[in-house]
Amino acid sequence: RADGQDAWNSLATQCFNQAPTCPSTGIDANGASRPGQIAIVLDGIVQSAPSVNVPTFDEFVSITGSFSQEEAEQLADVLNRGAFPVEVTPQEARTVSASAGGDSLRAAIIAGLIDLALVLTFLVFYYRLLALVIIGGLLVWGMTVYSAAAFISGATNYALRLAGVTGIIVAIGVTVDSYVVFFERMKDEIRNGSTLRNAAPRSFKSTWRTIWSADLVSILGALILFSLSVGSVRGFALYLGITTMCDLFVCFFFTRPAVLLLARSKFMVGKRAFGLEVASS
User: Fold this and answer.
1) pLDDT digits (tens, 9 = 90+) for 118-157
2) Distance (Å, rounded) from C-alpha 212 to C-alpha 177?
3) 43, 84 in Cβ contact below 8 A?
4) pLDDT tens figures, 195-221
5) Residue 251 has what DSSP assignment?
6) Is the Cβ–Cβ distance between 96 and 81 less than 8 Å?
7) Positive or negative CA dihedral for 239, 241, 244, 249?
8) Side-chain half-sphere of 17: how many Cα atoms within 13 Å?
9) Is 178 within 8 Å of 211 (Cβ atoms)?
10) Cβ distance 104 to 162 under 8 Å?
């Protein structure tokens, strides 16, 4: 701090005496002589360039002038933002080509599609005929997410980028969990002798609270992450929260009625739901 004060006073003395070594001359627009100026530059922008009125400063430096209260507060905020007490040492520097972001986004989308295909393959073998509801539900969910992403990209600065795609991929697992909780409860009902027609509404009623509670935790986590983070992390949190809300919407307005209709239809008569015998109604 003492070294900095000495350097500052040395520069102030040069500008006060209008020495040639002062960064700015002491001539105003009318050609009159006046003390030199010291520019305060932050992020490459001159925030203030006051004239030096005294040769040295003991401890504090003040900028005087015909400022309004608002202008003074704004200048103080700008100067305080530049007070960074930690010395930053660059450890690594990388040059990324303009196409790297597009390639990464394309790779993330391909990885998400492969992940979705593997999950659907497992669910088809595990849940048999009722996997049709999962496939239909994921299609509706995908279209809902796409519509929400298109609206957000057009209305805000949060376009769908790599971080957002990552959030959507994570949300696929949240969406599949909703089906697993619902269908596993139905399997228990059928094992206990219930018909598929009776098991479907009872299972949804008993599992809906679990589903929305789990999704609510994800949404709250996304909101907290979005409010406390910056940059690409906010994009991840935003799309994770949106896709989770889409899961709740699709689960209640598509999955529930689709399963109830399928359970009551003649299509399931004599069929094996989940690989289990379906009791006749």
Assistant:
1) 888 888 888 877 788 888 998 999 899 989 888 888 887 7
2) 11
3) no
4) 888 888 999 999 999 999 989 998 999
5) I
6) no
7) negative
8) 11
9) yes
10) yes
